[in-house]
Write a structure and sequence with these properties.
By secondary structure, the chain is of the alpha/beta class. The protein has helices at 2-21, 53-68, 82-95, 111-119, 145-160, 188-206, 219-222, 229-243, 258-270, 290-297, 309-324, 359-364, 371-376, and strands spanning 42-47, 72-77, 99-102, 124-127, 139-143, 176-180, 210-211, 252-254, 304-306, 346-349, 352-354. The chain folds into two domains: 3-137 and 308-350, Rossmann fold (3-Layer(aba) Sandwich), CATH 3.40.50; 145-306 and 372-376, Response regulator (Rossmann fold), CATH 3.40.50. Helix 6 links the parallel strand 6 and strand 7. The structure holds beta-D-glucopyranose.
């Protein structure tokens, strides 16, 4: 068994060296007639939607960085429409892009596009969201998604007073009524966020400190298709009717994304939350969208997660250039992201929890937002 494994490994390594010697890397090799490492040419960048700010920021940053490096960029947004994204990628392949950077809508819907890309020797980088069920994903750049979930749950526990911001035990006792929301199940990240968050909350659920009054504790029950704010608002309204019409109160909500948090907040406000008698419960989030940062500054939303899209874009560009130069891009994780066919080598970035008292140090001092944007809750265009 051992020997067999070693033989397979050795064969794999020999192949890697052989490919490296040719100046290529399978799908990552330069096309015939092109000099490996030559600049210029077009890079295809497929983004999911413009309804959430982060993807606009990601698209802009990737485009700007690649253009500064001498590439042309075909940047497309798909309006969260799966067939539209497939078509956009098909067109990029037909056009002969040198490399594809893809933030997928449905991580399982792109196998045929990726096969066509591989057949045309176009390497593929999965951006932020893993593309599943395909061997033709060369690299993955993202944040440590399980850690993001852990941070979301941590912020909720801090809001409830069960933990202090430094992670030590808080003074609150509970029991607290908490409701759980998850992201879109077609996005591989949703289950990673959930896994990280539930692992953190589970001991508190097990000892009765946290009670999920609706009993909706499965990801399928908590999921929010396409991360939609309206869908989350509707579910929160339904939860209030079904589990809280006996006069009991919601003490906290786990939310995986700021848009979802805003939907939850609207439902709670419409039900009379946000007063001294019935305070707004702590609600987590993600992406530090400007509207939510203002809500945090105003004490309405409790926290969010900051994932610096500038850093992710820079990482995508570094990895793209390595591949285009026939090198192996540097990975810092080679075991977490199994896409169902292979473990995709990944580069994971770190995220931070944003609370009211660190908005300035994390978001303003780093130049992500101006103080005026935080005050108005609107990004200057
Ligand atoms: C991203 C999150 C984002 C969510 C909704 C996820 O794949 O990682 O940053 O909040 O999609 O757009």
């Amino acid at each position: 068994m051992r020997t067999k494994k070693f033989a397979v490994l050795a064969a794999g390594m020999a192949l890697t060296f052989a490919l490296a010697a040719c100046g290529g890397g399978g799908a990552g090799s330069a096309k015939a007639g092109e000099t490996a490492g030559a600049k210029g040419g077009t890079i295809g960048v497929a983004m999911p939607t413009q309804t959430s700010e982060r993807w606009i920021a990601d698209g802009k940053a990737v485009k700007k960085g690649l253009e500064a490096d001498g590439y042309k960029v075909d940047l497309q947004y798909a309006g969260d429409d799966i067939p539209v994204q497939s078509q956009q990628i098909d067109q990029m392949i037909t056009k002969g892009v040198k490399l594809l950077i893809i933030a997928s809508i449905d991580g399982k819907a792109l196998s045929s596009q990726l096969q066509a890309a591989a057949d045309a020797h176009i390497p593929v980088i999965a951006y932020d969201r893993l593309i599943r069920d395909s061997k033709n994903v060369d690299f993955y750049v993202t944040f440590d998604n399980e850690k993001v979930g852990d941070q979301q749950a941590t912020s909720l526990l801090v809001g409830l007073g069960l933990l202090k911001a430094d992670g030590s035990k808080g003074t609150a006792k509970g029991p607290f009524n908490v409701e759980l929301f998850a992201g879109s199940l077609d996005d591989n990240n949703a289950s990673f966020f959930w896994k990280g968050a539930i692992a953190k909350l589970q001991p508190f659920i097990d000892d009765g400190t946290i009670v999920v009054k609706s009993k909706q504790t499965k990801i399928e029950q908590a999921a929010t298709l396409q991360w939609k704010q309206e869908t989350a608002q509707k579910r929160m309204e339904d939860l209030l009717t079904s589990a809280y019409s006996d006069g009991s109160k919601v003490d906290g909500v786990l939310s995986p994304y700021d848009g979802i948090s805003r939907g939850i907040i609207t439902a709670l406000k419409n039900d009379g939350y946000g007063t001294t008698a019935k305070p707004m419960p702590p609600i987590s989030g993600q992406d530090s969208e400007i509207a939510s940062v203002k809500l945090i500054a105003d004490g309405v939303q409790f926290a969010s997660i900051f994932k610096d899209t500038r850093k992710l874009a820079a990482q995508a560009i570094t990895s793209s250039k390595a591949i285009l130069e026939g090198k192996t891009p540097v990975a810092n994780d080679t075991k977490s992201y199994d896409n169902g066919v292979k473990v995709v080598p990944s580069f994971l970035l770190k995220s931070d929890i944003v609370y009211k008292d660190n908005i300035k140090s994390l978001l303003v001092d780093s130049g992500y937002y101006t103080a005026a944007e935080v005050a108005s809750g609107q990004a200057a265009s």
